Amino acid sequence: MSITGKNIIGYSESAKGASFQVQSPSTGELLANTYFTATSEEVDEAMNKANAASKAYSKVSRKNRAQFLRDIADNIAGSAETLTPIAMAESGLPQGRIEGETGRTCNQLRLFANLIEEGSYVKAVIDKGNPDRTPLPKPDLRSMEVALGPVVVFGASNFPLAFSTGGGDTASALAAGCPVVVKGHPAHPGTSEIVAQAIIAAAKKNDLPDGVFSLLFDSGIEVGIQLTNHKYTKAVGFTGSLKAGRSLMNIAAKRENPIPVYAEMGSVNPSVILPGTLKDKADALATGMAGSVTMGVGQFCTNPGIVFGIKDENWDQFCATLSTELGNVASGTMLTQGISNTYHKGIQQISADANIEVLLSAASSDTCQAGPSLLRTSSEALRNNPKLGDEIFGPSTLLVDCDSMEDVLKTVASLDGQLTASIHGNEDDVQNSGELVDILTELAGRVIFNGFPTGVDLAAAMIHGGPYPASSDGRSTSVGVQAVYRFTRPVSYQELPQSLLPLELQDANPLNVFQALGTPTATN
Asked: Which of 145, 264, 325, 391 is catalytic?
C-alpha cells in the first residue's frame, strides 16, 4: 500500500480539489505527502454511489457481511509495516500505542462480524395472528431491525485508528448493512488512506457494490457540512468536541428531512473518593489517578477531569500525593498544535479564577508539548460557577473539596451528562453509597467502582455514551455491539405471505436466528 493523497470514491480515486499537507506534531515540520480536498462534485459522487449501493448491500447475507468485516481486519493487520510509521508521524503517538490501537480496531471489526453472523441483533419478533379474537381479529405482525441507509462518519483526532476511518462507527454501520462515507480527519489523512485501501480491497474481494465505502479529505470543515446536509445521508457518526458535535446536530436538525447525529462529545468523568478508602490507601489512589490523568497525554474522552472528596487530613494527603505524582510526569506530545494551544489556554483561563488554587500548572508552550496540571476548588465555588468544571482536553484534573457526604451528593448531582462516573470506596463505604449510585446512574452512561475510567473495553455490555452533552443521544453507545442500533431502524410486517417475509421472520427460520414471540394478552 502506498499513499496517493487522492479521495477514494467507491472503487475510483479522484483529486480535483486544492492540496494540503500535515504538520508533524513532534517536529513541527510539514510531512512529505500531499492530499486533496474533496470538491462538491466529489462529495456528490461519493454519496450518489453510496445511495446506489445501499439497497444491494443491505441485502448481502449476514454471513458475507461478516466475512467482509473479517477481511478488513486482516487487511489492516497486514498493513502494519506501512501503517504504523505513518500513524506515528501524523499523530505523535508512540509505536506501542499505535500497535495497540491497530489491534483494537481489528478486534472490534471481528466483534461485529461475530454479532451479525449470530444474528440475534436483528431483534426478530413474531406476533402470530388470531382470526378468532374478539371484538376484532388479531393480525399477524412480525418486526425486525433493518439497515438505515448511507452513513457519514467523521474521523476522530485522538484515535487515528480505533475511532476513525475503520473504527467503531464504520464497523457498526457496515455491520448494520449501511454504506459508509468517511470524512477523514485532517490530522492523519495518510493513516486514513491506508485503512481505506484495506476496506476497499476487502469490498472487492467479497464482490460488494461500488460505493459501499468512500473516503473524502478536507483540511477544513466544508466537506463535513456538505456530507451532513446531503440528501442521501441517513445518519452521522462523530467523535470530537462539544462545539463541533453541536454544530453537526444543528445542521442535521435544520435539514428538510432531519437525520440523527450520533455524536460523542467528551466528558469530565467525575470520580468520587469516599472516606473509608481514602483512609486505607490515599497514596495508592493518587498514583493510580495520576496514571489515568496523564495516559495518552490526557487526550482521552474518558480522562478523569474532576475528583470529589470530603475534606479531611486523608483528602489533603491524597491531593498532595497526586500533585507530587503528576509533577514527576514528563511533558508529552499532543496530537495537534491546535489541541495543544487550546489546552494551555484553558489552563490559563481557569487558573485566573479567584476560587481556583493552582497546585501544578503546565508550562506554556508554542509547540505541541504539554505537561500535567492540577487545580483545586470548593464544592460551593463549583456549584456557583459550573464552568469551573468544564472539560479541559489534556492531562489536567480539578480537585473539589466537599464538607460532607450530603455536599458530595448535592454537587455531583449539579453536573451535566457524562460518559463515565467512578466511585472509589471500601466495604464500609459501600453500605452508604446507594444514593450516590442512583445519582451517577442518572448522570452517566458507565458507572465504575474502584477503577479508573480510561480504557473502554470491547464488550456486549459496554456503553460509551451518556446524557447530553456527553453525547447527542444518551440512549446509544459508540463502543460495543449495541452500537449497531444507531444505524438500524425497526420495521413491522403485517400479514405478509411467508415468501415475502425476510428470512429472519419466516416460520421455517432458515437462518436459525433467535425469534422472540409476542407477549400474549387477554384479548389474544
From this structure: 264
